[in-house]
Write a structure and sequence with these properties.
Layout (H helix, E strand, L loop, with lengths): L1 H133 L10 H6 L2 H14 L2 H14 L6 H14 L3 H14 L6 H14 L3 H14 L4 H12 L4
């Protein structure tokens, strides 16, 4: 037993220094392994970051491609629209010559009509003046029975009204004015004065239109055109951004002529106006 125990003790003494000698080596191996693992983790993290960056780039490229595809679709649509509009323009240009020719022909026709209307009106005026000389009356209106029997004022009025309805406003104004000079007391005198104002109003010449309308109110306060004249003055005030005066004229139409058609129009226009 003793030799065996002695051997075991000797082995323990021999192994103890050996273990002490191996301990640094084991530590180095462990540390080295740990460093290797840490390095692998760092590399893996870097690879992951790089992969994420690549994925982000790919996403941006995909989004960019989608934008490009969308732009291509818009470009195709725009090209189609441009082609359509170009065809329309070419088509319009092709017919432009014919339209211009037709307009020139129509203008010539209107010019001829105006000239003829002026000629007829002038002839009637000369006829009227001749009758006045024959009757030995001063230049101006004369609505005596003899003159009425020899000359129909309605002929002058109808000529002027025809020019007004055709849109020949300058000619109409001149003819209506002459009519009033000769027949200021006729039943159509206030109508003639109204159409003088309307000829200017239709052309947005509000100052002379307003003068003509106000002259009608002063000269023919009981005439049949008073409601329409008040309404037109109100419209001029609206166009001139004078709401208070416009409202006053509209209320006057409603108050003085409640059953007239102009009163209904005045009510409608008042409803559209903002409150003061």
């Amino acid at each position: 037993m003793k030799p065996k125990r002695i051997n075991e003790e000797m082995n323990e003494r021999a192994l103890k220094p050996l273990g002490l000698r191996l301990l640094p080596a084991i530590f180095v191996v462990i540390v080295t392994g740990a460093c290797g693992v840490q390095s692998d983790l760092t590399n893996l993290k870097n690879d992951t970051t790089h992969l994420r960056a690549q994925m982000q780039v790919m996403r941006e490229e995909i989004a960019l491609q989608e934008d490009i595809d969308s732009l291509r679709v818009h470009i195709v649509r725009l090209e189609a629209l441009v082609r359509y509009q170009t065809d329309e323009l070419l088509s319009m240009r092709a017919g432009m010559g014919q339209r211009v020719g037709a307009l020139e022909s129509r203008l010539q026709t209107l010019t001829t009509r105006i000239t003829e209307s002026d000629r007829q009106f002038s002839a009637l005026v000369r006829r009227l003046e001749s009758l006045q000389v024959q009757l030995s009356v001063p230049a101006g209106p004369d609505t005596s029975g003899a003159q009425t029997a020899s000359f129909d004022p309605g002929e002058l009025y109808d000529l002027a009204l025809r020019d007004y309805q055709r849109g020949d406003y300058d000619v109409a104004v001149r003819q209506f004015t002459q009519y009033i000079e000769y027949f200021p007391d006729s039943d159509l005198a206030d109508d003639a004065q109204f159409y003088i104002g309307d000829s200017y109003y239709t052309q947005s010449l509000y100052t002379p239109a307003l003068d003509a309308y106000e002259k009608l109110l002063d000269t023919y306060p009981d005439g049949s055109k008073v409601p329409a004249t008040l309404l037109k003055i109100a419209f001029i005030k609206v166009a001139r951004n004078e709401p208070s005066e416009a409202r006053s004229y509209l209320e006057r139409v409603i108050g003085e002529f409640p059953d007239a058609e102009e009163a209904q129009l005045a009510r409608m226009r008042l409803d559209l106006m903002p409150e003061d």
